[in-house]
């Protein structure tokens, strides 16, 4: 009986050991990634709708091996609507590809974005490394795009009123000339 | 253009441009739009109004000669068919040119404060002229085949409407492979996409817009060939049909 108990105890201990090793390995995979991403322009990112801004970031390989085939891209979320933003009009370059980043090397990443709509947004940068299941993500940067009113009644009113009046005047003048030439 | 009808079209187009630009620049909700979006909207309105008015006018310009029975006396004079058609073509193009001239103050006021006045100005003129030129030739060909302004007008408006419908589709619908293929050959889609490229994406060079201008030029070439075919059919049938 004692032998069976010992065997069972050993079995339980062995299972626990295997489980803890697997957990430690998985944790190591997610936390100790050599690649880090940092958004540098978090303080300068706010603006007015219609403005252009540059998202400056840095990708750093702190590992001992070079890393290949990394695709980085920006992801934007409209915080008011709780919806991701379709980047069609916001950024001409959605993704940046890095062929190789050497060990210890840091590379700059720049995206030119166009503030299309007013609102509160959050931005992150994601890096996908070929062959790795888990992507690397930067910290979240929150920014505000202020609304821009293009009200200019001082300029548009004379044009909106004046042009039809001028065209109408020309029409009446031509009509008058035609009638007078007919009668003569 | 010397007729009251011709100048009335100009008054109607200037009133439409006034309404649109005034709404865009004074309405509190619409004024939240980016200025380039406003310019894009106005550019689309200018070309759409131009296409619609010129299509209506061109539908009757040749057919009227048959309906008012002036065609017989006209063709008794030593006039070549080519001169007759090109004269009518120039008259219709003049109407587009005048609509464009009327739109210039609106282009100026909407693009105030941006560096996009010249691209806005010459792309509306270039794309509008190509589109209008192609449509006039298509309508003239239909006119010569039908010889009835009512039938020509109905057919032209149906064609114009059919070409405008895809531009009302949402972005998701436009990403469909069939819609994408249709968009590549649709002249109206090419005009609007090129305006988007110039005014919203700032791709102002002709090189960046070649993908839209070339299909438009091809559309003009196809309609020219159709017009040549219709002219030959017209000559074979004679001025007085079945006569």
Could you explain the architecture of this structure?
The complex is a heterodimer of chains A (184) and B (243). With 184 residues, chain A is α+β, with helices and mostly antiparallel strands. Chain A has 2 domains: 1-32; 34-146, Immunoglobulins (Immunoglobulin-like). Chain A has 2 helices and 10 strands, in the order αββββββββββα. In chain A, strands 2, 4, 5, 6, 8, 9 and 10 form a 7-stranded mixed sheet that branches. Chain A has a 3-stranded antiparallel sheet with strand order 1-3-7, with no helix packed on it. In chain A, strand 8 and strand 9 (136-137) form a beta hairpin. The mean pLDDT of chain A is 83. Chain B is mainly alpha-helical and 243 residues long. Chain B has helices spanning 4-26, 35-61, 63-67, 71-76, 81-110, 117-146, 149-164, 171-174, 177-185, 187-199, 206-237. In chain B, helix 1 (4-26) packs parallel to helix 5, helix 5 (81-110) packs antiparallel against helix 6 (117-146) and helix 6 runs antiparallel to helix 10 (187-199). The longest helix of chain B has 32 residues, at 206-237. The mean pLDDT of chain B is 87.
Radius of gyration of chain B from CA coordinates: 19 Å
Molecular shape of chain A? elongated
Structural class label of chain B: mainly alpha
Helix content of chain A: 25-40%
The CATH architecture name of the largest domain in chain A reads Sandwich
Assembly of the depicted chains: heterodimer
Biggest sheet architecture of chain A: 7 strands, mixed
Number of H- or I-type helical stretches of chain A: 2
Category from helices, strands and their pairing of chain A: alpha+beta
Short description:
Chain A has 184 residues and is an alpha+beta fold. Chain A has 2 helices and 10 strands; from the N terminus they run αββββββββββα. The longest helix of chain A has 31 residues.
């Amino acid at each position: 009986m004692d032998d069976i108990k010992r065997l069972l105890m050993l079995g339980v201990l062995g299972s626990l050991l295997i489980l803890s090793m697997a957990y430690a390995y998985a944790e190591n995979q997610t936390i100790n990634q050599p690649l880090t991403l940092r958004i540098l322009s978090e303080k300068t990112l706010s603006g007015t709708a219609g403005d252009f801004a540059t998202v400056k970031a840095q990708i750093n390989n702190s590992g001992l091996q070079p890393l290949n085939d990394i695709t980085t891209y920006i992801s934007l979320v409209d915080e008011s609507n709780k919806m991701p933003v379709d980047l069609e009009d916001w950024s001409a370059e959605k993704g940046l590809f890095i062929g190789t980043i050497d060990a210890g090397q840091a590379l700059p990443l720049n995206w030119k974005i166009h503030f299309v709509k007013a609102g509160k947004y959050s931005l992150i940068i994601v890096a996908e490394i070929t062959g790795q299941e888990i992507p690397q993500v930067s910290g979240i940067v929150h920014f505000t795009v202020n609304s821009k009113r293009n009200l200019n009644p001082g300029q548009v009113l004379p044009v909106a009123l004046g042009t039809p009046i001028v065209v109408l005047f020309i029409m009446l003048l031509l009509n008058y000339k035609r009638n007078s030439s007919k009668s003569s | 253009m010397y007729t009251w009808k011709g100048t009335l079209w100009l008054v109607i187009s200037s009133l439409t441009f006034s309404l649109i630009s005034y709404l865009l620049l004074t309405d509190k909700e619409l004024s939240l739009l980016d200025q380039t979006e406003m310019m894009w909207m106005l550019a689309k309105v200018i070309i759409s109004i131009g296409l619609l008015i010129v299509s209506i006018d061109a539908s009757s310009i040749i057919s009227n000669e048959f309906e008012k029975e002036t065609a017989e006396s006209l063709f008794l004079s030593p006039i070549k068919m080519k001169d007759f058609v090109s004269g009518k073509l120039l008259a219709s193009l003049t109407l587009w040119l005048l609509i464009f001239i009327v739109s210039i103050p609106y282009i100026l006021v909407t693009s105030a404060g941006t560096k996009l006045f010249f691209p806005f100005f010459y792309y509306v003129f270039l794309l509008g002229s190509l589109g209008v030129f192609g449509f006039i030739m298509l309508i003239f060909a239909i006119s010569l085949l039908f010889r009835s302004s009512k039938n020509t007008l109905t057919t032209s408006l149906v064609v114009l409407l059919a070409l405008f419908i895809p531009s009302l589709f949402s972005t998701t619908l436009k990403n469909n492979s069939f819609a994408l293929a249709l968009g590549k050959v649709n002249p109206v889609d090419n005009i609007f996409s090129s305006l988007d490229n110039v005014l919203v994406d700032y791709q102002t060079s002709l090189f960046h817009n070649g993908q839209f201008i070339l299909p438009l030029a091809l559309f003009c070439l196809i309609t020219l060939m159709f017009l040549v075919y219709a002219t030959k059919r017209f000559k074979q049938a004679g001025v007085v049909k079945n006569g």
